[in-house]
Specification:
The complex is a heterodimer.
Chain A (H helix, E strand, L loop, with lengths): L2 E12 L2 E12 L3 E5 L6 H9 L6 E5 L5 E3 L10 H7 L9 H6 L15 H13 L5 E4 L8 H16 L3 E6 L3 H5 L2 E6 L2 E5 L5 H7 L2 H14 L1 H5 L1
Parallel strand pairs in A: 3-7, 3-8, 5-6, 6-7
Antiparallel strand pairs in A: 1-2, 1-4, 8-9
Helix pairs in contact in A: 7-8
Chain B lengths: L1 H10 L4 H14 L6 H24 L4 H11 L2 H30 L5 H24 L8 H17 L1 H11 L6 H25 L4
Helix pairs in contact in B: 1-5, 2-3, 3-5, 3-6, 3-7, 3-8, 4-5, 5-6, 6-9
Classes of the chains: A alpha/beta, B mainly alpha.
Chain lengths: ~230, ~210
């Protein structure tokens, strides 16, 4: 498995404020990684650093020069959806119709992006990222604004992209991201901690034997961890 | 990448104000009675202000999240910042070429030599405006008021800077001597300003 991105003893600052220190993370080809943590825990800053938008004040980030980064939300550009897709700068764009279909995008591509609902705009951004041909795809607040079909489609897209050799990083509040991922990191209190195993801490406590873990993963992919805990 | 930003620029209406500003000055300021040199001296600050304005508009063309999305694709925030300045320069260069031809054809004492002197002078004004505008937009500075105040202030400082002041003085007096020197000087200034904006971006923790 080749490395796609790596943070080594990285110190991340935003506007002078320390967000993470001594952060270590490796993203390999074929891997889906979840980054979880509370609000203000530093998830977004870690993601931006992985994507090459934020720099490190100490330590090192080694990774591709360009990446696909999906922020939690954008102010929609006035451009028509079709034109935005056609002109968004990517060198190795693949057919965007496939991820749009998988995410169940229902917007009108002949209308401006401003006419899209929040959910469809998110699906458009995600489809752009998953058709970018980039080796690193980073998604913040991965399930924000998505309906159940969208979440399911995104989980499948993440797995497919990983199988095709990309490294996919998904950040979110809930443990649902961990259910999709091979590895989970928790960002909080200025640290980035890798959680061993496929599932996150709360799920592992519940999981028990190996065959049970698999069952819970399948279940949580559909319904989310809250229902598992209850 | 430049095409993408051109489409973002032209899809909105933010380009209308500087375009109207330029059209008004062109209608009122281009005098057939004045010499080519006098007209070009008049248009130097106009080109500077329009260039600064357009560069700030292109730099602020989207919100922070969309910019970060494009920056990841471009290979970093600094690289995107430079691409956006180049986008503004590409639009403005077309404007400067048209304006130079009009100035060269309309004024008294028109000749190929004078036309060839007007283009580097106005291109120099354009480059200086782009360089200054590149320093006055997000993410280098977050406040649009900085451009509103800094633009006119930087114009005053530029006009009073001894080399520019001397060239414009001479040009206003009917001589285009020294006009060609403005262009390489402007390129040097733009390189310095681009380096400075990179430093400021790094200080803000951006790539």
């Amino acid at each position: 498995m080749g490395k796609v991105v790596e943070l080594t003893e990285a110190e991340i600052r935003v506007g002078g404020h320390l967000v993470a220190e001594s952060a270590n993370m490796v993203g390999n080809k074929g891997q889906v990684i979840a980054v979880r943590g509370p609000n203000g825990g530093g998830k977004t800053s870690v993601l931006k650093t992985l994507a090459g938008v934020l720099g490190v004040s100490q330590g090192e980030r080694v990774g591709p020069a360009s990446a696909a980064y999906v922020p939690a939300a954008i102010e929609p550009p006035v451009v028509k959806v079709k034109k935005w897709i056609a002109l968004f700068p990517r060198e190795n764009r693949t057919d965007i119709a496939i991820p749009l279909e998988m995410l169940r995008f229902h917007g009108n591509v002949n209308k401006p992006c401003t006419a899209l609902s929040f959910g469809n705009l998110r699906k458009l951004m995600l489809a752009e990222a998953f058709s970018s041909g980039e080796s690193l795809i980073v998604v913040d607040e991965w399930d924000a604004g998505l309906d159940a079909e969208g979440v399911d489609g995104l989980a499948k897209l993440a797995r497919e992209s990983a199988e095709n050799g990309s490294c996919v990083v998904l950040a979110g509040q809930t443990s649902q991201a961990s259910a999709v991922a091979d590895e989970t990191y928790i960002a909080q209190n200025l640290t980035l901690t890798k959680v061993e195993g496929a599932l996150a801490m709360d799920e592992v406590h519940l999981a028990g034997p190996a065959d049970k873990i698999t069952a819970i993963r399948q279940y949580s992919r559909t319904l989310g961890v809250t229902e598992i805990i209850s | 990448m430049i095409r993408f930003h051109l489409v973002l620029l032209t899809s909105g209406t933010r380009w209308v104000a500087p375009a109207a500003f330029g059209a008004i000055f062109l209608a009122l300021g281009l005098s057939p009675q004045a010499t080519v040199a006098e007209n070009s001296a008049f248009f130097f600050p106009v080109v500077y202000i329009i260039s600064l304005w357009v560069t700030v508009i292109v730099g602020n063309i989207d919100d922070d999240a969309h910019r970060e999305m494009v920056a990841a694709s471009a290979g970093g925030v600094g690289k995107l910042h430079t691409i956006r300045a180049a986008t503004a320069a590409s639009v403005l260069f077309g404007f400067v070429v048209v304006l130079s031809v009009m100035v060269g054809l309309v004024g008294q004492g028109k000749s190929l030599t004078s036309l060839l002197a007007v283009l580097p002078l106005l291109s120099g004004g354009m480059l200086l405006g782009v360089g200054a505008g590149n320093m006055m937009c997000r993410p280098v500075v977050d406040e649009i008021g900085v451009a509103a105040v800094g633009g006119p202030l930087s114009l005053s400082a530029l006009m009073l800077a001894p080399p520019i002041h001397w060239v414009l003085w001479e040009t206003n007096a009917g001589s285009l001597r020294g006009a060609a020197a403005v262009f390489p000087a402007a390129i040097a200034a733009v390189v310095v300003l681009a380096g400075l904006s990179r430093v400021l971006l790094r200080r803000r923790g951006l790539t």
